[in-house]
Every structure is written in structure tokens, then in C-alpha cells.
Amino acid sequence: MPTPAEIIAARVNGTYDELYGVSDTESSSFDDDNSTLVSSVSSAVPSISDDAAFPTLKKAGTASTSTGAVSWGPSMKSPAGGNTPVLGASGASNGARSGSSTPKFKFSTIQEAFSLDVNDQVSVTKPELIRILTAIKSETKTNIECTTSQHIKKRTFLITGKADDVKQAKRLVIMKLSKPLTVTFKVPSKLRSRIIGPQGKVLKPIIQANDVKIDIGNDEFADETAGDEDEDDSFSTYVNVTVTGYAEGCAAAEAQILAIIKDETKNLATKIQVPALIKPLVPAALNDVVSKYSSLDISIPDFKSASNNVLIVGDRETAKAAKAEIKQVLSTLEAKVVVEEVPIPKLKHQFLPIETILVEDNVLIKLPEEGETTVKFIGERSRIAGAQQKAKQITSQYKVEVLDMSKAHKGNLQHVRAVASYLNTNGVLKEIANTNDVVINIPDNKTLAKKDITSIPIEIVSKGDEAEKVKNTKKSIVSVVNKITPDQTLVITDIDSFLINKVPETIKEVARENKISWVTLGEYITLFNQVTEPEESEDFDDFSESDNSGFAKVNEALNQLRELAANLKSVVLSVPSNEQTHISGYKGSTLKNILAGAEPNSLVIKLHSNGNESSEDEVYLHGVKSDVEAAKKEIESVLADAKEYADGFTTTIPIPSISLSRLIGKNGANMNALRDEFGVKLDVAEEGDDKEKKTEIVISGSKKNVDLAKTKVQQLTKKWADETLVRLRVESQYHRRMIGPNRIYINRLQDKYNVKIRFPSIDFDGSSTFADAPKSKDEVTIKGPSKGVTKAEEELKELLQFEKENGFKENIKIPTKAIARVIGKAGETINDIADGTGVEYNFKRDNDSEEKLGYAEVELTGSKSGLKEAIKKIQEIIEEIENFTSVTINVDPKYHRELIGAGGSAMKEIITKAGGDDLPRNKYFRLLSIPNEGTGSDEVVSEGPKTIVDKVIKQIKDIISLKEASITEEYELPKEKHRFIVGPSGSIRRALQTEFNATIDIPRPNDDSTIIKLQGLPEKVEALKAKIAELVKDDWNVSIDVPQEFHALVSERGAIFNKLKKEFNVEVQHGNLTRQAAKLSSASIPTPPESAFPQDDEKTKFTIVDNEAVEASAQFIPWRLKGDEKDTEKAAKFIQERLANASGATSIGWLYSKNPSAFSKIIGPQGSKVNQIRKKSSTFITVPRANDKNGNFVYLVGTVENLEIARAEIEKLLN
């Protein structure tokens, strides 16, 4: 029969049913029979009949030692007797108390039950036991009951009294009646510092609460065989933890330490090396694994990345399982992969669809490396053939032609290299490529800067057989290159190469002001004038001289670099090769610090070099004289220190102990950063007791770097020493408004005063580990420099006061059907409203009341303006919900296309007319939903505001009615007149369709059809036909077809059209050939024959040569005369006469003048003189423009007799 104390212990430990087979309800009689026993128990402590009140103690034996591999993470098993209570600071059990309710009253008396297993007990006689318990009762003023089980000899104790007294009594009972024991278990060595905590802050409370001694092994004795054999697992090495004390305390301490470890090791980060051969194929191969383990973060390297590892991060056990599967997949894939080599011309390499084939076929195309000649296809054998075929199809679509620029400008390679770079940089080549729908590839600047290149190949890539485009591209490139002649550039070579990188900042502004561009190739700077529009040419021209006034100003701006160059200096130091490591330092840190002492880009230091070539025992310095001298002294000092302190220089610096953790940083991050920056070693000297204020930091390395690191540490600690933490009480209801939308107000304060302000989170639970974290939901912390904290605190207090004075409230009613929309998904909508207006909200929800009344109330708190804006936004949502409707009508699918229109134009027009343009995008598209073609559905749906939906539906019905009553007629209209009913961007067509409520179907420009289709009501179609006839009727009276070979002469290079307008009041149009006519009119005069050029010192020369017969062309330029009928008749006669003269011209005259300015005498005021000569001699006379290529020649065309007349008249004017 169990004793009462055993029953109590069993019930509070949850083992009553297991041991005695009695249910909770059956045990109620025990409480009734022992009412005196529990009468003094506080209601603040759960009843002894509550299974969750007192977890059982560990059933520990003698000293136990954990052996074998340890498994860390979520699946880690608790130690034997894992249900052992963990003692808190009060000594009472901290076991789970699920189900217990918060007490309403608090009493001073508590009760605690616990047991000691027979193996844990000290052997004492009954009288001695009574004497011990009596002494403890007397000392602690508690009541202790004890029973011993006859079967298992377990002693169970029930202690009643005040909390502190019960704690002391329990401690004394355990000390007097149980044996001390030692528990040993393993923990990851990496977490040793986490268990101990800063200055023992984590471990000391565990020791004190459980009255135990804890010894944690050192890292140097870590056991690498105790854990998993995973080289990437940072927790795979272990140290022993030894806990010495009494059974209950040992078990509790072990549980607390393992809880820390479990939390730290629940996740695993590991990696798997991927063989380089299969790396590109891995992403596709691992798709299934990634999908299977979606809870893990699996990072697979891209085939272009430098990484060769698959990274796995997540739950430890899941990550291990995924790693095993990935290894298996990689092994299988590697066995299947083969490499096939294919010879493919190098020009075709750029067209190989490497990424497309990798994605679609999981085959990598690897281009040949230096020394290789074949392209490699890497993948599974079954896939490679298809990939090769696809690659062949794609590359065969492209054609590459090469234009060598090196022959331009008589082989002036330096100039041509600069031109090539310039055209590539300023986008001229790109524009030519876009115009002709080709790709232009040109050598990069690095290649162009090489002085030994002999050719400058420009690749022109076209798709398919597009020879005409390639030809036009060549012409455009040649033309542009021809225009940029050497005399239009200025080459500057006297800027020191060390200062070349300063050229852009030096000349940028002056170059922009003078419209000058530049390129830099090596040590050459070439200045250019802006490029004009390209004209086509067949081959590269020679060049002629021209003036370039802007270059002088740009060149003058470079004088400051020339002056700076005079202040440059080069020094070569003799330093043995093995000593140059002192100059470099750890990871180049010493050299970086030396260079940091100079202005950026003002100093260069090259180790193992003399400036011209490699030299093992020399160091080259070049830069601004003062910086070179300073660097030289620094280097000499570093070398001297290296000799003086052969074993390295060491110094110590005391820092406040409170700053030590910040100096070390998380996982030593800050110390590592200092080490990398200065190339020194930092160690923490042995810390003293807690009373000491300072901790010594030992810094070792080269003296210069140690001094720099010491200064940096002093600066940091000084900054941290000035840091202040202020805790400010701010009621939580004001937090949102003080923070502001998107933290705008707080961020502004933080930036202004360089402080960190923390507000508690909405779900504050006090679990934050940050030292400056708020300790309650009504607390705000400010951390930073003392002055900044004080200022920020003042502003926060002012802001709080303002908010308190502006904490107005409003209650609004929201219809039940609108509540979900007002709140939004996961509160998104109401939170957006609150954030945007700075108000707080509180829903007063009651399902019964809402169902009865049909609405719910929400209380808003904020400023008057914020409340007004928030209420407005909520009312808009309510009105939208109440006004929402959905209408479905059945429409024959044959009319669906009419409702949609070209590119959705009809749908947009319907919605616009209904007033739906201002709706948000997601609501806009719901206004009109038409089934996709082929679905078989005839339901057209409109959802949205009722007024808009009604208008949409009405328009749909009207359109259908119209279509059902409409007819379609074909109307023949010449192709060239289609543009008259289309208009700019289709404007005329839209206007006609709107005016006659009809549709006009016009063939596309590449369609030879001349038939347009008109659809609408019969009377509307007839009216539309009449309107079209009116629009396309001819508006010219006379049309003359001028052969294109005579157009330039007859038009007098375009001048004749002004004459026709002024003298005859007639305008001339050329229809579809307007552009060609303009091109012919602006064509340059022919190149003069050799005989036309002067002999010796002739100042003028007139030469007549035969006009070679020109075959009659089949191409004509129409001259359509618009104006009064009489005027056009006169103009036609005039044009016919000129055409007759042009066709009857048998000779060409060339008038050469050494001084082209004399031609102004021939022209006369406003062309009066030359017009008189033209009229008198019936010849065509063309005087060159200032920028014409043959500017020294006047060009004449006519009969020999007429040319002689013109010659005589011209000589009179010139003489």
C-alpha cells in the first residue's frame, strides 16, 4: 500500500496512473481524507492533484558518464530522466505548468514534494533520519513529512512553509540524505564560450541555482571523433562537461546546458563540392531534390560563378538527409556525362546558344580556351546529338562580314584606332547597327591601344541572307570614318601616363562646353569634333585640312596635368627580395597603410620591380614628389623596425572591460577585421576578477601596423565609452504615431543625432537579447553618444507630449460584408491605412452582435487630420463594396473579337466611355471579361461599381445590335491613296469610324490588295463611301513625269520649287517618291574630269566636254502641280521647256577658279546675275556650296553654243 507522501509525489509527477492504476478522478478521496495536510497550501500554487504542478525528479544512479556519438539539434534526446525539473533562482521547480491558471490571491505558504531514489540516498538509521529532519524543521521553520516505499526503498518528502524556507529545507535534506555524484557529457567545443557567457554571465546562474560545480574542458583537448564525420559541421568537435553535485542539481544543470546547445545547434550549414565537369548540369539534375527538401535553403552554383559548392542550410537532420541524396545524384550524373569535341569556326562562336541549350537540353557548350581549337559539348550522351543539331541550326542563320578599317585615311593606324574607339564609345556604330538591323562588333579599347596591331576588323553580323543590309552598313561606316579626318582631331601625347586617369575629371566640363569628345588609348589622348549625320559612300576617302577651334581650350585645360607632371618623381629602392614581405605585410596590409597616407591615385609602389621590368631586389615608387618622399621614409622605417624587432613588435593597451565584447564582436568578427586591416595579431590578456575596470589587449606585428592598430582600438573604445543608454517610458498606444509611416520620424531622429532608438515589437515578449532592448511594452530605449542621446530624448518627449495632446478618437460602423475588405489579407489593408495616416485602430468584434446589427465598430485614435483621412479611406472601401455588382450576359462568340478590338482597343474604349479609367489595375480588368477564343463559352462578365457596370453592359448590347444590323461592303482604292484615310498614327481612320459608327478594314502596307472593307449600318456605309471619295480625290491639276536622271537639272538642286511658288503661285508634290526626289535634288555635282583642272598657275579655266549620252530611265519622278488652273498651266509649260533643255543638253562646262569667293560675282544679289545668265544662255548652272567637295568648280550643262554664251557672260562678271 503506497504512503500518502508517495501518492502525492506520484500525482504531481504524473506517474500515479502508471504506478497505481488509479485515475485522477478516483484520487479525489485522498484530498478529502487529508484536508489538514493541504489546508495551508497557497492558491498561488497548483493543487497537489494537478498533474502539471510538480514534475518528477531524475531517477539517477551513481555517477553517470555519457558515451558514444552525440547528436545535436532538434532531434537531440534529453538525458536520462529528462523530465527532471530545472531549478530556478527560487529553488522551486520551473517545470511546465500548462493548464494552470493565473492565481487571483497570493499567500505566504507553499508546498513542494520530491523523492530520492535508493541509489542516491545516504544510508542512515531511522532514529538518525528523524534527528536530521527534526533539526532541519527547527532550523527552517517548515513542516517536513517523509515516507519510505517498502518495495523500492524510495524516500518521498513533502515540505510545507514559506517559499524561502522551503527552498532552504529542501537544500538541507538533499545535502544531508543524498550522495554527491558526478555527471559527464559532451558539448561542441565551438559553443564553450556560449555556455560560459561574457565573464561567466550564463554559467554562474546555473551553478548557483543548482548548487553544483561545473568544469568545461578546454578547446585544445577537443574530441574530434565524438561527433558526426562531417568536415563542414562546425559542431563536430567536442569537449567534456563535468557536473559535480547532488542528483537533482546535476540533472537540472545538465538539462539547462543541453537546452542552450540544442537551441544553438538546431540548424546545420554544410557544403558539397561539385566536380568542375558536371557543374553546369547540376541545377537541372537537382531540381527534384530541391523540391523535395523545400524547407531547406539549397544554393546551387551557376555555371558562370566561381563557386564549386552546393550549399545546404537548415534543420540539421533534414540537411544531412538532403546532403546524402545530393551526393548520390552527383555521383550518378558524373558517371553519365561525356565530352564530345566539334570543330566550329571561331567567327561562329558568338552565335552559339550556350544558355538556351543548357536550359533546354542540359548540355554545356564550352568554347575553346587558349591553345585549343575545338568546341566541347558536355552532357549525357543521349542529349548531345540534339544539342549539336540545334546549335548548328542557330549558327547557320547568321552571316559575318569583316570590314578592315586599317586602310582608312591612307593607313594612318594611330588615327584609325582612335576613330574606331570613338565611334564605339559615342554610340554611332550602335545607331548604324540598329538602323540596318545588324550587329557590329569592334575591337575593345584594350586591343586598340596595342601599338603592334596591323588591322582593325569590324565584324558585321546579319541574320539570314540580308546582303543589302550589310552593304548599307558598310557604306554608313565608311562614310562616318571618312568624315573624321586627321585634321579634324588633335592627338595629345605629352601627358604623363601616371596622370592619364585624371584626364576625364580635368577636361570634362571644358570639352562639353566646346562640343569636343575624346578617347584615351594607352598614352595617347585624341580630341574629336562631334560627328554629323552619316552619308553613304563606297570606299574610304583621302582627307583634307580643316579648322578646329575648340581643341585649343581643351588642350589648355590639360596644362594643370602638365604642371602636376613636373612635380612627379620616380625612386627605385634596393631591397632584398626576402625583406619585401615586410613592406607588403599580412595580406598586403602594410603596403595598403603606406598608400593610404597619400592622395588617391597619386602614388604607385611596385615590389620586385624597377619600373621598366621585373627586378627581384628592387622596389619602384612613382608619384607626386611629396608622396614619394613620404612613402620612401615609411618603407625605410618599416624595414628598420623589421630588423630591430626581428621577432615582431608587441604592445599592450588597456581598455574598459565593458568594451571587450564589442571589440571582439560576434564570433570574433571585429577582431578579425582589425587583423586584416592592419596585419596584426590581437589577444586578450588574462582577465582579472569582476572588480577590475580594465582588460589588457595585446597587439603583435610590425611596429608601424601595431601603432596604427593601437590608435584605432583607442578611438573605438573612446567612442564606446561615451555611449549612453536611456530608457524612456512611452505608452504603447503612442508608438505607431511616434515612429511614423515607414519609420520616417524615428529614422530622421536616428540620423540627426547618430543614435539607435528601439521601440518594443507589437508582440513584445521580453525575450530580446540586445542590451538596449526595451524591458516592457511601454518602454523605448535610446543608445548612442551622450550628447546625441540627450537631444534625441528631448525631442522624443516633446513628440510624446504632442501625441498625447492629439490623441483624438472616432468610432465608425463598418457593414458586416465590408469588414473583410477593410481589414485585408492578414490585416494588410487596415495596417496600410493606419501607417499612411498615423492612426491607431481597435476593432470591437462580437459575432452575435454583428449578425444581429449587420455591422461592427472600429475605434480610431490619432490626430484630427489623420482621423479624417483614415475615415475617408475606410468609407471609400465601404462604398465600393456596397456599390459592387456583377452582371453576366450571353454574347455569340462571333462578336467577341468585335468587343475586344485590335490589341484590346475596343475593350479599352468601352471601359473609358463607362468611366472606368480611374479604377486600380486589378479592378479595371474585372470591368469586362471576355472568354478566350476556343473555350466555347459565350458568357461576358462585368464586375465593379454598379454605375460603371451598367454603362459597360449597355455599350455591349448596343454594339451587338449594331453588328447584327450591319452590312459589309468592299471598296476599291489605289494603294497609294490608303494613307489619306489612315492619317498620322491612324487618326483619320479613327475619326471616320467614330463619325459613321462603322469599321474600316485596310490592308497592311506589305499587302498588295487595294480592297478596303467597310462595315456598318447601310446608310452609314453609303455616307462613309462618299466621305472617302471626297478625301482621296486628286487635288492637283497637272502631273509631269520627269525622268529621274534629269530631275536634278530641272529642279536646279531644288531652287526651282521656290521659284514656282513665288512667280507662278504653284506648289509641286512628288507623291510616294518625295524622299527620292529630295535626295536627287541635293546630290553633289559630278567629279570634274582631269582636263578641267588648271595647268601651272592658271587662276581661272573654262572647259567644255561632251555630255555622255544617258540611257533613258524607266524610273520617273512625278511633278504634281497644285494651284489655280491657269497658274499650273503656265508652270507646266515652264517645266516642259526646262525638261527639253535638259534632254537636249549635249555638253558639260566646268569653270575653275583658284579663288572660289569670286563665284559670288556670278551669283549676284539674291541670285539675280546667275539667273540672268541661265535665262539668256538656256543652260543649267550650278554654283558650289561652301562645304561642297569640289568647291572650286561651277558646273554647267547645255549645248556647246549655249555654254559659250554662258562663258562669255561669266567672264564679263569675273573680269
From TrEMBL:
Q: Where in the cell is it found?
A: Cytoplasm
Q: Where is the composition biased (Low complexity)?
A: 88-101
Report domain K Homology positions: 116-178, 179-262, 567-640, 647-718, 722-801, 806-879, 883-961, 965-1033, 1034-1140, 1146-1215
Q: Does the keyword RNA-binding apply?
A: yes
**Any one Gene Ontology molecular-function term assigned to this protein's record:** G-protein alpha-subunit binding
**Gene3D superfamilies to which the protein is assigned, alphabetical:** K Homology domain, type 1
Q: Does the UniProt entry include the keyword Zinc?
A: no
InterPro entries for this protein: KH_dom, KH_dom_type_1, KH_dom_type_1_sf, KH_Vigilin_N, SCP160-like_KH
What are the start and end residues of every segment in region (Disordered)? 64-101
BP GO terms, sorted: chemotropism; meiotic telomere clustering; pheromone-dependent signal transduction involved in conjugation with cellular fusion; silent mating-type cassette heterochromatin formation; subtelomeric heterochromatin formation
Keywords in alphabetical order: Cytoplasm, Repeat, RNA-binding
Q: Which GO terms describe its cellular component?
A: chromosome, telomeric region; endoplasmic reticulum membrane
Recorded protein name is: Vigilin
State the organism of origin.
Suhomyces tanzawaensis NRRL Y-17324
